[in-house]
Amino acid sequence: MRLELRGITKRFGTFTANDGIDMVVEPGEIHAILGENGAGKSTLMNTLYGLYEPDAGEIVIDGAPVVFAGPGDAMRAGIGMVHQHFMLVPVFTVAENIVLGQEPVSGGLIDLKRARAIVRETSEMLGFAIDPDALVGDLPVGVQQRVEIVKALSRNAKLLILDEPTAVLTPQETDELIEIMRRLAAAGTSILFITHKLREIRAVSDAITIIRLGKVVGTASPTATETELASLMVGRSVSLGVAKEPSRPGEPVLEIVDLVVRDGNGVPVVNDVSFTVASGEILAVAGVQGNGQTELTEAILGVTKPASGSILLRGAPIESMGVRDRLDAGLAYVPEDRSTDGIVGEFSIVENLVLDRLGAPPVSRGGALDMRYLRENAEQRVAEFDVRTTSIDRPVGTLSGGNQQKVVLARELSKPLSLLVASQPTRGVDVGSIEFLHDRIVSERDKGAAVVIVSTELDEVLALGDRIAVMCGGELVGIVPGGESRDVLGLMMTGIGPEEARQRAAEHHTVLGDADLAAEQEHENEPGHVAVVTDVHDVEENR
């Protein structure tokens, strides 16, 4: 299938999410769309898939303009989509999910024998081994993603849209997905690969289109370096590395001893976890999301009560302390879901910057808020953290996700602290802001704070962690030095201990492993190296 987008524009009220986008995807091509969170990538794909109707422009398939009234039309035209959040029914079997909405019928009943045959035929074509009778909810996320791909291809998809497909995968599962993409492309399937992960784009794409603020600002070759691609994403030069000196750990600040946290059904979601974080060091916690990291950080903050075990802050047990007392004791906390737990969207930037200090000087004096202090504080923090806004009185919920995150970080890092706990600290933040926030986190470490970072982004874990703890199934698989290889960490994320992971990694590198990183560094250092980049336009940044 040859796909052409001509001048696609999509507006939501006064906001233009896609602005005159032109793009061509050739048959059998893996075409990557690169852009920051909020750049308009998913809106464009939802328009292509029939979920949105474009306000202007047209979609052309094999030379003929098409109009989609919904996803059904897109599927009938040969377009399939694997969403970032899988559209599967957990209590249904693989076969039931595959045929859902297009069930084969025999004698007035769903023909499950035919459904199973469809699964086997498509799976074998792709080289998968998927049990048609397995419950989807019992399958690992990597296998669930394969089910989504089988579902799309069983409906004769000639163009497959993969929207942030590696967000929930280990490096090894990402490696497998890349091989699947290559096989599909070799067989003639066109693939639109939507991501913000530069390493993956360079590993698999044939062509790259860069979108910034809803517009196509350029195209690039996969031979372009990560630094060059990142600069195109944000419109200026950025550094992808984190400049930091070796850590100088001091006295223990946070001690976790035999911690157990249970969910509402009594099932351990944090199981017998123990570790220590000293002043002047960053412990990065790695793992696929949903392996106990959230519950661990919530137990440290005090919003979740442990079933057993101890949490000590500078040697003093804090299990019986409330959240307020822990914050007053020097704990700063950045939640993984800022919109739910980090901000009050209807409140102004001024108010959100002091949410955790209301009722105490200098925010309040004599029982009343000191508005002069609040405004001076807001002006200072907005400037210091480069929060892009027209006014400090603007409701924080109207800011972009990246700027909301800057407000949360500004609040938490603008007070004396002993311990910083940050979950997904740069989720939804543009590349340029990530650079700034990473530097601030390292600065807190260098001032003597203990830092715990939880991130599903392996690049972030490797960039920040002086030591790296890996969690799987609610348990601590192991703690390794910050310089550990991606391959070892990926294997540990599946539950394999450090020593065995090192042995296995020595025998095999992932597609996105250290060999690629070394090759890229060598490539960047070649005299006269330039990326193949075309049609790059200056676009004013207003994030």
Automatic annotation (TrEMBL):
Domain ABC transporter stretches: 3-238, 254-498
GO terms for cellular component: plasma membrane
SMART domains hit by this protein: AAA
Lipid bilayer topology: Peripheral membrane protein
InterPro entries cross-referenced by the UniProt entry: AAA+_ATPase, ABC_carbohydrate_import_ATPase, ABC_transporter-like_ATP-bd, ABC_transporter-like_CS, P-loop_NTPase
Translocase keyword on record: yes
Subcellular location: Cell membrane
Keywords: ATP-binding, Cell membrane, Membrane, Nucleotide-binding, Repeat, Translocase, Transport
GO molecular function per UniProt: ATP binding; ATP hydrolysis activity
Family annotation (CDD domains): ABC_Carb_Monos_I, ABC_Carb_Monos_II
Pfam families according to UniProt: ABC_tran
Gene3D superfamilies per the UniProt record, alphabetical: P-loop containing nucleotide triphosphate hydrolases (3.40.50.300)
Protein name as annotated: Heme ABC transporter ATP-binding protein
